[in-house]
Amino acid sequence: MGEVTAAALVVCYANLILPAHPAYVIDFKDCHDYKYFFIRFSHGTQMHGVTGQEPLHCISHTLGFWLSSLMEKHWVSLLIPLDVVKYVGIDLRQKSTIKFSAPSAYPVITFGPFNAPADVMTSLSHAIGTVSMPPKWSVGYHQCRYSYDSSEKVLKVVRTFREKGIPCDVVWMDIDYMDGFRCFTFDSIRFPDPKSLVDDLHSIGCKAVWMLDPGIKKEKGFFVFDSGSKNDVWVQKADGSPFVGEVWPGDCVFPDFTSEKARAWWASLVKDFISNGVDGIWNDMNEPAVSKTVTKTMPESNIHRGDADIGGVQNHSYYHNVYGMLMTRSTYKGMEMANAAKRPFVLTRAGFIGSQRYAATWTGDNLSTWEHLHMSLPMILQLGLSGQPLSGPDIGGFGGNATPKLFGRWMGLGALFPFSRGHTETGSIDHEPWSFGEECEEVCRLALLRRYRLLPHIYTLFYHSHTKGIPVAAPVFFADIYSLRGDCLLGYIIDDIPRLQFVNRYYVNFSILLDPQDPELRKVETSFLLGPLLVCASTLPNKGAHECAHKLPKGIWLPFDFADSHPDLPLLYLQGGAILPVGLPIKHVGEASLEDDLSLIIALNENGTYLHIF
User: Fold this and answer.
1) Residues 381 and 528 sit within 8 Å (Cβ to Cβ)
2) H/E run at residue 174
3) Which residues are catalytic, by number?
4) Do 2 and 296 meet the contact criterion of CB atoms below 8 Å apart?
5) Alpha-carbon distance values, 15 to 82, 379, 522, 588 (Å)
6) How do 216-217 and 250-253 pair as beta strands?
7) What pTM, to 2 d.p., does this model score?
8) pLDDT tens digits for 203-253?
9) Residue-wise over 143-170: b if at least 16 C-beta within 10 A, else e?
10) Which of 89, 96, 107, 93 is nearest to 34 (CA)?
């Protein structure tokens, strides 16, 4: 599902705290210039080791690992410098061992104590930065597929949204808009005038996002290849010649984004590309993905001529984790150069901690299954806890064909995710909201109208995330009440290996504790928070949200809806003491005005008053 998955796990493990007297054996090993850190435990051992709630599941067996790896009771923040480029590997294939590997050690610093999980995220944001404030249109609904293969098809899809009264703000162009999959080009027959197409889209309130991959076709006479070769920007093999790997256009070379020269070259291309009316850019395949290889990426022996301040000349294994992030950084810069008055919007498949400063993330090529619908929520929550609040799955599933029930249920949930986009693969059936019959179409219409009524609130949450590092979509335990005890513990480095506090070199001991009133909230997998708004969904094919038992945090949580109750839509609850602003039922953000009235939904607390407005 893309390298961002691994990046998210790295940060989740940074937040993984072991109890004072665990049955875990900690071991370190140096071998062939690599540092190895092992956690060995008995199969079925409770990872959090405090309340015995959730077994550790290897990711090869169940995705429950994504959620059960969240912090249970002890709260810390691991801080690393901006744009850290060191490689980190995590091996979860063994049932009783987790193995971390890296070519050198990371410093570990913990600050505390903290009063709440949100404070941990704010502390983390001081080290890794916060999400860039997204353009408002990007908080609306996005429609994509691989591929809308002509200008006429693109316009037909968007006009159908308008005719049917279903909200939508963005349409996406996958690789088929290109001339022979050559980046920065347009097919002269199917997309003869991209600027005219974008003008037509803008006239009906729709933006356009276009894909750019890192693989550049190795072809003399192709202006991007010729320019890159002249500027000497390609990743090299060990012998100094450009590395050539196969991607969509055939043989390709790859920009060395670790070099400022290459990033500036790419940003200049992006700046010119924007003149075609491009509103946003989609960086895909940027792990980088390489076909017909065992690893699906370039060899670790490839050479990057990186800037001195991030490591200098190193092989690919050193820079692999941040290749995608550095690509989005230069894409973002190119969009800024094109128009400093507009906020850039970039979506990336690959990323690392800190990527949120430049790009949104999606969870990769999922499947049209109920299991993957269920998986999407904990993955988004994990990304939020990793500092990336702007994420979402391919609604309806990318691979395979959704059913009407699955698509409607997925839209009901996905319409409330921070990033909301429908997408599907080539060769699949149509996956637009009206493609599954009238009942599913109505569910999708209701779901997206909900999102657009909540846009004032969701947009405000992005501002809080931008300024404080707080996730837009947060786990339900963020609403728990905590009691604090313990002291601050600073991590330090011994023998060039990061360690916290060790007893007999084998056990980790922590003294920062935040005791939750309701540890059961850690087990919730089908609900999440949008500020004081609690969203409770069902990912079961035979039960709607109203038929499921939902665990609510302590306190007052009042149910409400927009007169749109439906079994395939999530239940909504508002926390006592909160005031929720909602807007008009618009079809795209361009219909809204600063002069529009806002409605206020008020949930009084136990004293009959309110405390805060979100």
Assistant:
1) yes
2) none
3) 284, 287, 365
4) no
5) 18, 15, 15, 38
6) antiparallel
7) 0.84
8) 999 999 999 999 999 999 999 999 999 999 999 999 999 999 999 999 999
9) bbbbbbbbbeebbebbeebeeeebbbbb
10) 89
